[in-house]
Write a structure and sequence with these properties.
209 residues, Aldehyde Oxidoreductase, domain 3, 29% helix, globular
Length: 209
């Protein structure tokens, strides 16, 4: 059977290409596929303890049995992400979209590219299709966990300069405490589950060399 394998961030650099098609025996597991990949691309093996995998955009363990036509993605630990945009975003536009007659508070968080030693720019890369799905899940969960009316999140991709906006997160609620708590939770959670990575002049941020 044939499966598609997609590489992101550090793993794309190690493989030297964004994706491949690989022939596997019927009944092969994700673990079997990884062993084949380590043989084919030896540079990947040093990350064998930290590689995260998805199958058809859902996180999966090594014992997952693969099916013909599956899409497998090798994902480094994520560094945060959300709905994606190659262009800038408007804080005022999000503020207006979050307002509602029933809400007395709107909380916004803006992440910005900061100047670190030797850093003049930042490249942001994503597994776009999965990132969109995960951010939708995050927003739905936020509404279930907190007493908020609305939430929205936008994340930039591509090359960004010092001072450029990276991410915008907003929540609106009848009371400010709920809006603050929901926004803070979303900031923390998106760094855990949404497949987006950042790269500066020294390499991929937050990942092992």
């Amino acid at each position: 059977m044939k499966v598609t394998v997609r590489f992101f961030a550090t793993y794309r650099d190690a493989a030297g290409k964004p994706q491949i098609e690989m022939e596997m025996d019927d009944g092969a597991s994700l673990g079997d596929l990884l062993e084949r990949l380590y043989d084919t691309y030896p540079k990947l093996k040093k990350w064998s303890e930290s590689i995260i995998c998805s199958v058809n955009r859902k996180y999966a363990d090594d014992d997952k049995v693969l099916e013909p036509g599956d899409e497998v993605a090798l994902l480094p630990p994520v560094s945060g992400g959300a709905r994606l945009s190659n262009d800038g975003f408007s804080v005022d536009q999000m503020l207006g979209s979050l307002k509602a007659d029933s809400c007395g508070a709107v909380v916004l968080f803006v992440g910005v590219v900061r100047k670190d030693p030797g850093v003049d720019s930042l490249v942001v890369q994503s597994y776009e299709e999965m990132a969109e799905e995960k951010i939708d899940e995050l927003i739905s969960t936020s509404k279930e966990r907190f007493n908020i009316e609305r939430m929205d999140i936008i994340h930039r991709t591509g090359e960004l300069g010092i001072g450029d906006n990276i991410v915008l997160i907003g929540a609106s609620a009848p009371h400010r405490k709920d809006a603050f708590e929901a926004c803070q939770w979303a900031v923390d959670e998106l760094k855990k589950i949404v497949p987006i990575w950042k790269k500066d002049e020294e390499g991929w941020i937050g990942q092992d060399d």
